[in-house]
Structure formats: structure tokens, C-alpha cells
Q: What sequence folds into this?
């Protein structure tokens, strides 16, 4: 079971208190974009084995969205951060690199 900490209200709880929202840090394409760009945004996801960045909502708490970095193989959570962040904070990247030196980085 995952233990996540909401960066908005500071509550740490099991994943059942939160709702997953898919992959984080996607470049969104909407009306006026090329068909290929829109199709890629709608249907193409990384789904990696290892480090992954995800969106979560504190469904049974403050109700706010946030982002989390975790390992999909071990379920280890490296950290959470506000949803308005455009890329993972340096301290979370450092924590990932410390435990997964072979990790190639964000993007």
C-alpha cells in the first residue's frame, strides 16, 4: 500500500484516501492543434517500469490535486509536490538519483 503526503494540507495517509489522476507533466493539446498532437495527448502514455510521475487528488481530505514521484516496481514514494509545479523539484530528483543512480532523468 502507498503512503502519500498531501503537500497542500500536510496529511499523510494510505492511497485509499486519494484518487489517482494519471500521468503528470503532460503537454496538453486542445482545439486548434494538429490531429497527431491531440491524438498523442489523449492516448499515448509512458507507463514505465520504475520511476513515474503521477497526478493525485486528496479525495477524502482537502480535495486538492498534487503530483507524486514513485517507483512502479517497489511502490516507493520519493515525494509529493504541488500540482502547479511544471517539473519535479530538485530535492525529489536528488532523492531519486540517490536510490536509483541508473535513472536517466525526467522527460
A:
Amino acid at each position: 500500500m502507498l503512503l502519500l503526503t498531501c503537500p497542500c494540507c500536510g496529511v499523510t495517509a494510505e492511497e485509499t484516501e486519494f484518487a489517482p489522476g494519471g500521468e503528470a507533466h503532460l503537454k496538453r493539446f486542445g482545439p486548434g492543434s494538429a490531429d497527431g498532437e491531440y491524438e498523442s495527448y489523449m492516448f499515448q502514455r509512458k507507463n514505465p517500469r520504475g520511476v513515474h510521475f503521477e497526478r493525485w487528488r486528496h479525495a477524502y481530505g482537502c480535495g486538492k490535486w498534487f503530483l507524486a514521484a514513485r517507483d512502479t516496481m517497489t511502490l516507493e514514494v520519493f515525494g509529493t509536490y504541488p500540482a502547479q509545479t511544471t517539473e519535479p523539484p530538485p530535492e525529489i530528483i536528488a532523492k531519486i538519483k540517490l536510490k536509483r543512480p541508473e535513472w536517466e532523468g525526467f522527460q
Q: What stands out?
A: The chain has one domain: 3-99. The chain has a mean pLDDT of 91.
